[in-house]
């Protein structure tokens, strides 16, 4: 049955001791909830003791039974984002969240309703023939973030409503029903979570202390945190990045594939591997990348493939740029002569991507920039390519000594990013011909110097987002290199064997989706671009 | 650095006892390989002892060094699939696999070259000023499936070449280089793997025994198996199914998301869960579906989301339609009034998908049908919807008694599919209002009868491919239902809590990508539509 729905869901709660923050927060939340429940009961009874109201049918909580797919009414719903002055005088029906409620005396209440990041101000005014004071009281009893249905007439306010996205309109409420109530006190308020550092500091200068929601609290209550305009923007941008990646590659003759994440094998795979036991007691692990299988797909005649899927790294990296699970965008392709063919794809793909984001995601980028101000990414029409040796030389001239056959550390990568930006005016560039010693065993060495390799990394704002190379397609050579790198060849024999039946020269690259979004928007932490991040200390919610 | 490339790859070889078939095959392969190596050495030395040839520069094995990105020559390559009579008289350069080699005496050899499923016949004829007999000998020494570069002139044959896809052209070879040699004896031959049952049986009637490659052998040597025209078609169709799914949903305002596959929790998640130990010794498991997190994304204001990603099921299901890892296409969306809104999306999405596949994937469908003949799927412009009760009644009238509050087994599903096809002329339909008892705890019961639920399954050719429902969005009710279904509510508290901050009514569905492709093409086994399938007995290659 149910291809989607296991009868017993995967449990999600961290176990004892798994997450200190979560445990502490949980206790706090439990206390909060008890208070809230008491308050909610009090509020509801306060409303229900009111005198009977001839207009009582125009407001109230919707009974659960009425939300169980009772009927299809044929009513038309208007999206908050599409309420414009053209609708003036029309009766509309909207569903959204109560973002704020502001009573003015006992006869007027302003309710700002939010849907998909758009907001509109709705006004409830006591009127003899339509709206009772009980209805206003009911409205003010609603908790923030509750879901409401509102029927009302679109009107044009005297002055634009600066507090909402639909500034040129208001809705004069005639009916107001609560579809689902939020708890009265939220663990974090959306306006607090949406506040920029600049706002907090400016307020502080005026002696005012505004709430700052820290990263861990945000992640513990991610459901609320992702409702902020910036987060709504971030994940819509992420969806676009992925879609542009896919559409570009499809238009270039690539085939999208899915390779297995469950891989046979035991502990030989290194320490950064999540291990598990497969059916029949077989030792297995989670794929650290689709590297081997995407190469096998090339050997299987797919010529050019890409994969978008989760990648698992059990690394103890507590940095701003590492996750234990992230989304990999992987590419592998036959090459005719040179790994520059792979860099050409990277070049055209990413320039097309940046262009498209800047052109089609203006609202999202603006929403992100409002909370996390950033400068648009500087990039060239034709992506700059420097050799590793040239990069080393630039660093040397700037007084930074780097091992010419070693790797760049995060600090020198960042420094080189600065130097490149100053000299070439770009924050997006390719560094190629890396030392062979710092690349994986399957990397093809340079034809004229085996100390260097046909490989490259790609940087945005001084941080690596892509890694790629020509691969070794000759099984005997691959076996030799694996051995030299201390890898037990027996454990990867299925991979090596796939090159014995005729293997074309090929290369490819891998991109971290979360890193692309983080660095395009100059965000300071990769947890901001993962919907439910997983790091060495976090596996919930 | 390297976001894609772990220094130590995940090992892929099954361990002792993990896969009996694989072990046996491995031993066989080892013996084969030794024979092949000896044969290859013999063949090469046979060529090298030849007399010196003034045209020796026009053929031979390309040295590895020349394949290490030595230079960018600027030469133009022509794809085999684009060689047409318009190119007559032109010199072209192609790279592809040697599909077959047929010498005719010592002066002529026919080489069929394959690239991306397209084939062209190339002819090598001894000519005084260009082609030596040594070159013909070299050509006939090439093993099948080797990668070659061929330069030659396009000519028009007297009769169409029925054995290749490019029937109106030939290539008169002037240069022939081997880029990478396949082992002389392949574990399976492509023409054997590409043969239909019909062909085998027709040959048998004539007293001829053709090789039949069984499923397990195919999967053990998947790299070779996926080179067949049918398999090339299957995985290109799969890529299209996924892309149509995505593009349709994006055009309807859905956002693509990625939810974590690593989920906290221990053994309470039921037996069909793959368990592992997360960082810090925290018990964890692999997500059996993105169900809980996709609902959480709806609570996080994304309104409409979809996810394409791996789904893990540690079930002991040895059927033609179950895998331990498959690609889930998941959808979740707010609903205004009725779960029919979800079924509307299913309806329009799949009709659009089938239309698009039939229109844009003719070549692929033809390639599949040639090996696995099938009738095009019958479906209506507006998808048929029957209630579960109506389905039961149809079965009853046909003499099949089914528990009205139980589930349908595979047999009755198939029978109902037949009855529906006969009565309504469609092999694609929706069955809704399933008994509550057979649906997951989070399924919303019917408003007028709690024994039934606001749920549905979707069938192609009598087999289930989609399962969906309205979900319970009220936390207290959800808690109650979880308890009634024997689920420890503590283990899913993060999930239940996400409905406490205002939750809109919502619903969704999940599709198995491999099942859609399998049933659209009427294939008999889901392993045919998984690139590297994982089942209880297989975790390699």
Automatic annotation (TrEMBL), chains A, B:
Residues 1-34 are annotated as: Disordered. InterPro entries: Aa-tRNA-synt_II (IPR004364), aa-tRNA-synth_II (IPR006195), aa-tRNA-synth_II/BPL/LPL (IPR045864), Asp-tRNA_synthase_2 (IPR004523), Asp/Asn-tRNA-synth_IIb (IPR002312), NA-bd_OB-fold (IPR012340), NA-bd_OB_tRNA (IPR004365). It comes from the Eukaryota. It holds the Pfam family tRNA_anti-codon. Residues 235-533 form the Aminoacyl-transfer RNA synthetases class-II family profile domain. GO terms for biological process: aspartyl-tRNA aminoacylation. Its EC number is 6.1.1.12. PROSITE patterns: AA_TRNA_LIGASE_II (PS50862). GO terms for cellular component: aminoacyl-tRNA synthetase multienzyme complex; cytosol. This is aspartate--tRNA ligase. It comes from Anisodus acutangulus.
């Amino acid at each position: 049955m149910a291809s989607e729905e296991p009868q017993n869901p995967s449990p999600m709660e961290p176990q004892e001791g798994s997450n200190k923050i979560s445990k502490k927060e949980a206790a706090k939340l439990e206390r909060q909830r008890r208070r809230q429940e008491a308050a909610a009961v009090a509020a509801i009874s306060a409303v229900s003791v009111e005198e009977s109201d001839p207009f009582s049918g125009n407001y109230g909580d919707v009974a659960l039974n009425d939300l169980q797919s009772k009927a299809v009414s044929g009513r038309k719903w208007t999206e908050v984002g599409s309420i414009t002055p053209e609708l003036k005088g029309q009766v509309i029906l909207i569903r959204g969240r109560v973002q704020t409620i502001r009573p003015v005396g006992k006869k007027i209440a302003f309710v700002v309703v939010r849907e998909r990041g758009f907001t509109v101000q709705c006004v409830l005014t006591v009127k003899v023939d339509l709206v009772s004071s009980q209805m206003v009281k009911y409205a003010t009893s609603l908790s923030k973030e509750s879901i409401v249905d509102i029927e009302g007439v679109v009107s044009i306010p005297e002055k634009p409503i600066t507090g909402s996205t639909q500034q040129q309109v208001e809705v004069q409420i005639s009916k107001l029903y609560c579809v689902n109530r939020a708890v009265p006190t939220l663990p974090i308020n959306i306006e607090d979570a949406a506040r920029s550092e600049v706002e907090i500091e400016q307020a502080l200068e005026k002696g005012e202390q505004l709430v700052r929601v820290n990263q861990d609290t945000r992640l513990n209550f991610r459901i609320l945190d992702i409702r902020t305009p910036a987060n709504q923007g971030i994940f819509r941008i992420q969806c676009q990045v992925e879609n542009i990646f896919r559409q570009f590659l499809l238009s270039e003759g690539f085939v999208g594939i899915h390779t297995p994440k469950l891989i046979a094998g035991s502990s030989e795979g290194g320490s950064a591997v999540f291990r598990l036991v497969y059916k029949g007691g077989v030792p297995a692990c989670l794929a650290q990348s689709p590297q081997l299988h995407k190469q096998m797909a090339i050997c299987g005649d797919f010529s050019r493939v890409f994969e978008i899927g989760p990648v698992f790294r059990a690394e103890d990296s507590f940095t701003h740029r590492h996750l234990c699970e992230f989304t990999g965008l992987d590419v592998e392709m036959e090459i005719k002569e040179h790994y520059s063919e792979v860099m050409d794809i990277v070049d055209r793909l990413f320039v097309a991507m940046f262009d498209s984001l800047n052109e089609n995601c203006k609202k999202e980028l603006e929403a992100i920039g409002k909370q996390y101000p950033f400068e648009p990414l500087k990039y060239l029409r034709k992506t700059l390519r420097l050799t590793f040796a040239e990069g080393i030389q630039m660093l040397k001239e700037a007084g930074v000594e780097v091992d010419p056959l070693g790797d760049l550390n995060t600090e020198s990568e960042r420094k080189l990013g600065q130097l490149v930006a100053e000299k070439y005016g770009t924050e997006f560039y390719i560094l190629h011909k890396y030392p062979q010693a710092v690349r994986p065993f399957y990397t093809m060495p340079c034809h004229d110097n085996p100390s260097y390799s046909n490989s490259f990394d790609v940087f945005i704002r001084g941080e690596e987002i892509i890694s790629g190379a020509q691969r070794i397609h000759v099984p005997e050579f691959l076996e030799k290199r694996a051995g030299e790198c201390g890898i037990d060849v027996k454990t990867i024999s299925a991979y090596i064997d796939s090159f014995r039946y005729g293997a074309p020269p090929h290369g490819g690259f891998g991109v971290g989706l979360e890193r692309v979004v983080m660095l395009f928007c100059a965000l300071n932490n990769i947890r901001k671009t993962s919907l439910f991040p997983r790091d060495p200390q976090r596996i919930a919610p």
